[in-house]
Amino acid sequence: MKPELKRRLKSKEAVLFLIFVVIFVFMSILSPTRFLSLYNLQSMAYQLPEFGILALSMMIVIITGGINLSVTYTATLAMIIGGFAMSHMFAGGSSAGLSVLVGIILMLAGSLACGAFNGYVIAYIGVTPMLATLGAMTFFEGISLQVTRGGAISGFPIEFIKIGNTAVLGIPVPMIIFLFVLATVYLFLERSRMGATLYMIGSNPKVTRYSGINVRKNLFITYLIASLLAGIAGILMASRYNSAKESYGSSYLLQAVSAAVLGGTSIAGGEGKVIGTVIAVLIIQVISSGLNIIGLNRYLTNVVMGLILIVVLTINFLTREKQFRNN
Amino acid sequence: MKKKVLAVLLVLMLCISMTWANGSSDKGSDELTIVVMPKLVGIPYFNASEVGAMQAGKDLGVNVIYTGPTTADAAEQVRMLEDLISKGVDAICVAPNDAAALTPVLMKAKSAGIAVLDWDTPADPNVVDLSIHQIDDKQYGEHIWDLLVEGMGDTGDYAIITGGLSAANLNSWIDAGLDYAKKTYPGLNLVTERIPSDEKQQVAYQKTLDLIKAYPNLKGVVGISTPAPLGAAQAVEEKGLSDVITVVGTSLPTDSGPYLADGSLKVGTLWDPSKLGYLTVVMAADFLKGNKPVDGQMVENVGKISVWPDGRTVIMGPPADFTKENYKTFNF
Amino acid sequence: MGQTLIELKNISKTFPGVKALENIGFSIDSGEIHALIGENGAGKSTLIKILSGVYQPDSGGQIILGGRVVESLTPLEALQSEIAVIYQDFSLFPNLSVMENIALEQSVKNNDNLVDWKAMERISRDALDQLGISLDLNTILGDLSIAKQQLVAIARSLANNARLLILDEPTSSLSKNEVRKLFDIMHSLKNKGMALLFISHKIDELFAISDKFTILRDGKYIGTYGEDELDDEQLISLMVGRKIEYTIYPKNKRTEPLLEVRGFSKKGNFRDINFTLHKGEILGLTGLVGAGRTEVAQAIFGLNPADEGTLLLDGKEIINSTPNDAVKAGFSFVPENRLQEGLVLSKSIEDNISLTMLDALSGKSSLINLKKRKELTRNWMEKMDIRPNIPEMITSKLSGGNQQRVVISKWLATDPKVLIVDEPTNGIDIGAKSGIHQLLRDLAEKGLGIIIISSELPEILAIADRVAVMRRGRIITEFFCENITQEDIMSKAL
Amino acid sequence: MKTKLLKIKELPIILILIVISIIISVANPAFMTLENFLDILKSNLVLAIMSMGMLMVMLTGGIDVSVSSVITAVAVITGYSLMHWSSNLLFTILVAVLSGTVMGLFNGLLIAKLKIPPIVATLGTMSVILGLVLYITNGTWMTGIPEKFIDFGRKKLITFPTGDGKALGIPIQFLFLLVAVLATWFILRKTVIGRGIYAIGGNRDSAERMGFKPDRIIIFVYAFEGFLIGLAAVAHTSIMRQVDPNAFLGFEMQVIAAVVLGGASVLGGYGSILGTLIGVSLFCVINNGLILMHIPTFWQKIVVGLIIIGSISIDMTQKKRTERNKTRVDVE
Predict the structure, then answer these.
(1) Mean pLDDT of A241-270
(2) Is the residue at A118 inside a domain?
(3) Closest approach of chain B CAs to the CA of A238, in angstroms?
(4) CB 3.0–4.6 Å: which of B277, C154, C183, D66 could bond D126 by disulfide?
(5) What is the pTM of this model?
(6) Which of A23, A34, A249 is closest, CB to CB, to B86?
(7) Class of domain B137-270
(8) CA distances (Å), origin B91, targets B66, B143, C382, C436
């Protein structure tokens, strides 16, 4: 057991966790009354889930050797489709409960449709994920604009708004949903047979195909699942922002890629741990909130994030080199 | 392992040095702290507002934090507002990227005992204590169309170039203007729906070139958002059509100087954004001290303001029009 | 014979856990064709990599090159000493033109800044002329057939004016005519004073062309002999260390048909393939490399579906349009190229062995039963004697033999009805080889139908019940493996 | 000859470009005019120049998402140099290409020496560079570009008189594009390093074995890309006559999209100058055609998205077909 423990302590994730702790402590020292306040911890717990879920969605796709540039527009298209129905039903006299139910179902269905579109183009036509999702990004944005005419869809029942804005026993509902998603993604990726397949596809699709595994189908499903997660993030955003709009969360796209990579997911595919991505999301959240509370210029926050990305990857590189030399 | 720790420390040092360089500290004081949040930072319009807001802070002896997202994303605004509530401030003045999106977080702010104001663009009227407007949206839209007709006459083809399709206040001006044109200037013919320019002069320029070719009888272009009229004017000037096509729109006098001078931009119209920033801080500080604005009140460095009967909508005043003749007299 | 070009003294190479080469010492003269002989795994590839500077030998040895004594070479030194190697994987650029593949190296070697396209054209034209073949110089290499790509690889080495040309099984993809042409060229190169180190498994070829033989066995130097000092049999016995290579297994009687292939055709791959595999039978599929054997196997397994033809399993028609269909129907396929097709090298033994078994390892919950997985892995690792016995070991770090055992394990784990093995003993030492033969035979005994593709005729004769010989995309003939010789098969295959 | 033409790898994309051009010109004859082509040329010069650099990067199997922040930084430095140091043209170009090259070099070092995957390394530098530029400039436009430089930007290379007394001209900035294309062509086609770029994209191990130095080549490629971005920044500034630090937000996606539309493989090794230029043209023609064809604004993104996916899918299906039909065995 001892060498196992030692190995774990030396893992990328452990290093990352250490970095997280250091940053957290640092922020706390810098701003003990505010950063460490219960209110702020809770506020971070409200903010983190939508981004965290998008990062997990991105991670799943990256593990198969792909990337999904349309992830945020999937979320917004889903919330617009569902939100459109929900607000119309509610305004038309349907009960709040029914409107919310239909709205949520349509949001999930909308995200699945986006996933099916991406999945088909990537898995069955064989277009490189980066290009396919680049096109899809524009396409989804176009549909969203067409539906909303650039405005926001609002007028949701208060029951829907509550999803993203209430806390149970002090724990925000979005956080509970996030923990649930996190557990599911963990089980899916690291424990289920399909997860195992995805890692193999990401490492070597040819061998995986030669092993009698339907790579196309698995890839297709991957994009479905990743988009479903984006849909869940969309529900949280729509609820937290009390409306649905095409541009919500557009700044999450590159952040989601950064989080996945920072968390140790290999951009080439085949490697990556759920826990790593989660720690990376935590790091980004703590830096973002912490620096905001301290009052650092937003642009410098971007600079700090960029530097951390480069530094962590450099550390990974140096560790790898060292291991290589030791061998 | 040592190396890793070292690297981490380096990053931290960086954070510290930048933080201290910024000179902000966590220590609470008796000073009032007012947050002024634009839709996004780093564009000329909101930079000008920042100058006014900071000046007001200095004049009134209140602590002003001017911060906002780096892209016009409501989600990012919500996150920042949540952090600022954690930070503990006295008033939040926000120019929402989307009114509805900010309602929940603004309600949180209110329940945390923070005064909530909107400025530049209205937020949900149910959650704001005061609403500071540069101008009435409807009047402003109508004014722009009046300027257009002044240039091109009340008949003929025209097009609209807007900053972004989902920018709520730009849309409300355009919608007001279009409604007005339908009733007042039936001879005007809008050739195609509003065209987005992503808040970039380059894109506005390109789109105007395309418009000129697609609609050969084009007589007017309305540019909404500060870079749009400039891009349109540049295209018109290059095509040598300054006498044929009238370009009007919302632009800052300093940036639009060259285009006004060569006649490609007929007239720009905007209020002084720094005054708006100034007024916002003054109103917020007054509100925190328990003073309500009154109609016709004289605000130093801004001028006479009007207040709607609801008692919380403050209008700064009419916009200024910039022309070839007068643009040099403005300094924003 | 000319003077000594390169001399090796006491060259050893140790990999973690394996002594790949031990005290190798021999010399190559200019103007000779020197055959390097040894079984797969004897250390030939390692030796070549040392000569080309890819591997550094253990310290203590010496390489004497043009009078200069060094311990090891770097790739650049090897290049400057004009040692050229044609690897089995060609080391070509699929995205560059034929011309550049042949002549670009010259520019790099000369430290040129600019590309001289005219000179490149001349050089590549010359090289191809020497080979007596014509190719469009501007064709992108990736658009050529594998056989033509190999010709380009040979032309490239010719273009480099190498003083020592190392040919690692250069003839394996060539037709008889092309082999003859190559030998002509090798002769003319030799007459120009060039040294050639030639590696081949084909004894007749070796004797047709070589002046000297250096024999390696299990990483050890056995000896260097002139062409007149040895005959076939002596050579083989030196190579394998004993006279009889393989246990010849008793042949099965025909039982009921298991798999019937009827009229399989695919444009540019194979035509009108018909054969029947019986239960408990091992059917050999042989012929030269490039005869279409692998293509047929891939077609059966759904990797390269045929345009026409039907497949009957237990008398019922099935359609394998993807490997997934094939696995579900009860097929297993151990591919020829284990590094590119058989193993996910960046993943562990456990990951690889369980890859085909994920459905079985996960019940209704879809979650993998980790305990069961560990058990399965342990079982197979023991059964197949995979070493080191660490399921978490990354497969790229295993030796070739162990890698192959992982691939076979992963396929046997599925408990197939039909097992197709493509060159299963490639790169595996003798002991392990007979272990695999025994295993295949045992499986057949249990009623499995096995198709084995192998270029190694003694292997086919030892374990197959029947053999089908392919030539240029067609099955030419079938033999029962009793009372036939290698020559009988070869005469049909060529 | 016929077969040779059919062998051109760019053929499908050329056909798509032709078909789309025909559709647009049927809808609006104004498309097929010299004037329109010159407009397209001028407004997309910068994209075309930058696509050359991106092509090289992608040939090595890399990608660069930091191009938009690098050009922003270079434009700001150039603007500063013009306003505070010298308005000498050569000096300006020198400053621009030097600063671009330095930033490219930095990317190259991260990728080649620290082995950080290109997309991640450039994501990091993007945040850092853009963050610093916007922090320093606060997004303010730099408008005081000297007249001398602006006059240079208005020059025409060749002018064609038109009937109505006006003249059309090839903009002077075309020279920058010409230099970029010729330099890229020269490097890729005529130098050993250029063939090395293809070689490491096709088979990195073999290239190394052959004597190429992949690390050096990669550093060179990113530095050269930075150099081209320097040229693009000068061209851009001379066209737009001001520097807007927000002008290139999101531009990297356009560059990447144009290059891959032109047939470059994201995995490296495949891609040509001709293809890239056609990809850029396709991209520009689609954008140009949207307004010329009177496609309503709210449909435009849908159309663009579908055309991108459609063209790539057609190309892909074509490639798969030839791959499938490739002869593997000479069947008797």
Answers:
(1) 88
(2) yes
(3) 8
(4) D66
(5) 0.87
(6) A34
(7) alpha beta
(8) 12, 33, 72, 80
* A vs C: CB pairs below 8 A: 79
Q: For residues B317-326, give the mean pLDDT.
A: 84
pLDDT band at D155; cut points 50, 70, 90: confident
Query: Which of B54, B189, B200, B252 should be substituted to probe chain D, the one whose Cβ sees the most D Cβ atoms within 10 Å?
Result: B200
Residues 23-42 of B with CB under 8 A from A: 24, 26, 28, 41-42
Give the residue among C162, C168, C145, C165 at the shortest CA–CA distance from C98: C145
User: Where along chain D do its domains lie?
Assistant: 2-331
Q: Where in chain B is the domain with CATH 3.40.50.2300?
A: 28-135+273-317, 137-270
CB spacing of B101 vs A243 below 8 angstroms = yes
Touching status, chains B and D (3+ beta-carbon pairs under 8 Å):
yes
Q: Is the pLDDT of residue C127 over 70?
A: yes
Q: Tell me which residue of B131, B143, B120, B132 sits closest to B319, measured CA to CA.
A: B143
Confirm whether A148 is domain-assigned: yes
Q: Which chains touch B (3 or more CB pairs under 8 A)?
A: A, D
Q: How many B-D residue pairs are in contact by the CB < 8 A criterion?
A: 87
Q: How far are the Cα atoms of C357, C358, C367, C396, C413 from residue C370, in angstroms, in the given order?
A: 12, 11, 9, 23, 16
Cβ within 8 Å, pair B193-D297: yes
pLDDT-derived band at D182, boundaries 50, 70, 90: very high
- Find the mean pLDDT for residues B227-249: 90
CATH number of the domain that A307 lies in? 1.10.3470
D158 forms bridges with which residues in the sheet?
Answer: D170
> How much is the average pLDDT of A82-90?
93
Give the Cβ contact number of residue C146 at 10 Å: 12
User: Which of D244, D286, D301 best tests the B interface by mutation, with the highest count of B CBs <10 A?
Assistant: D244
A306 closest CB neighbour out of D115, D124, D267: D124
Q: How far apart are CA C386 and CA C393, in angstroms?
A: 11
- List, in order of start, the domains of chain C with CATH numbers: 4-240 (3.40.50.300), 257-493 (3.40.50.300)
Contact A204 C345 (CB under 8 A): yes
Beta strands in chain D (DSSP E): 156-161, 167-171
Inside any domain, residue A24: no
Q: Which residues of B touch D141 (CB under 8 A)?
A: 44, 255
Residue C113 sits at the chain D interface (C-beta within 8 Å):
yes
* Three-state secondary-structure class, residue C478: strand
- Strand-by-strand arrangement of the C316-318 sheet: C270-278, C257-266, C308-313, C316-318
Range of the domain at A175: 43-314
Give D324's contacts in chain C (Cβ within 8 Å): none
Contact residues on chain D for A137, CB-CB shorter than 8 A: 305
Number of domains present in the structure of chain A: 1
Per-residue pLDDT reduced to its tens digit, B109-142: 998 899 999 998 888 888 899 998 888 888 889 9
Specify the CATH class of D2-331 in words: mainly alpha
What pLDDT is stored for residue B2 in this prediction? 46
pLDDT above 80 (res A2): no
Grade residue A120 by pLDDT with cuts at 50, 70 and 90: very high
Do residue C91 and residue D326 have CB atoms under 8 angstroms apart? no
Third-level CATH fold of B28-135+273-317: Rossmann fold (3.40.50)
User: Would A2 be classed as within a structural domain?
Assistant: no
Average pLDDT of the residues of chain B:
85
Kindly report the nearest CA distance between residue B103 and chain A, in angstroms: 7
Nearest-10 Cα torsion for D265, D270, D276, D282: -50
Q: What is the DSSP letter of C250?
A: P
